[in-house]
């Protein structure tokens, strides 16, 4: 019987285990895109929201969010999945009648939603 065979198997197992432990931590260190997350939108205005789009902060690469139907004014709410990517996002809301409002640099990692109010400057981010 060869005495190096058990030693080789132990070495091979140690290398394989080390690789399994290092690979996930290297992936976690990547500052790249994050998975999609849920985000709420409350429409407390008098107008219906007819389109909603999300882009990385300070970019024009907006992706439309499927509303299904307009989000009626008054006090209605919806939840949507933010497309995968970083935490800071720009949200573009278009209301019935064509008025568009941009909400820049919303941290979707630290906020759970956005409340649209009658005065757009008073729209509030909901804490996580």
Please supply descriptive tags for the structure shown above:
alpha+beta, 2 domains, 128 residues, four-stranded antiparallel β-sheet, 8 strands, Immunoglobulin-like, single chain
SSE arrangement, N to C: HEEEEEEEE
CATH superfamily of the largest domain: Domain of unknown function DUF5300
How many strands, what sense, and barrel or not for the largest sheet? 4 strands, mixed
Which structural class do you get from the secondary structure elements? alpha+beta
N-C termini distance:
63 Å
List the helices and strands and how they pair.
Elements: H1 4-29, E1 37-43, E2 49-56, E3 63-65, E4 76-82, E5 88-95, E6 100-107, E7 111-116, E8 124-127
Parallel strand pairs: 1-7
Antiparallel strand pairs: 1-4, 2-3, 2-5, 5-6, 7-8
Give a nutshell description of this structure.
The protein has 128 residues and is of the alpha+beta class. The chain has 2 domains: 1-30; 37-127, Sandwich (Immunoglobulin-like). It has one helix at residues 4-29; strands spanning 37-43, 49-56, 63-65, 76-82, 88-95, 100-107, 111-116, 124-127.
């Amino acid at each position: 019987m060869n005495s190096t065979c058990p030693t080789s198997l132990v070495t091979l197992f140690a290398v394989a285990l080390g690789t399994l432990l290092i690979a996930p931590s290297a992936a976690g260190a990547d500052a790249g895109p994050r998975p999609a997350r849920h985000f709420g939108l409350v429409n407390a205005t008098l107008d219906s929201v007819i389109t909603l789009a999300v882009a990385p902060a300070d970019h024009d690469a907006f992706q439309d969010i499927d509303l299904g139907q307009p989000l009626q004014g008054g006090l209605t709410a919806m939840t949507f999945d933010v497309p995968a990517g970083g935490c800071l996002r720009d949200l573009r809301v278009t209301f019935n009648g064509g008025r568009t409002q941009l909400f820049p640099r919303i941290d979707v990692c630290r906020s759970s939603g956005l409340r649209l109010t009658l005065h757009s400057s008073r729209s509030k981010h909901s804490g996580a």
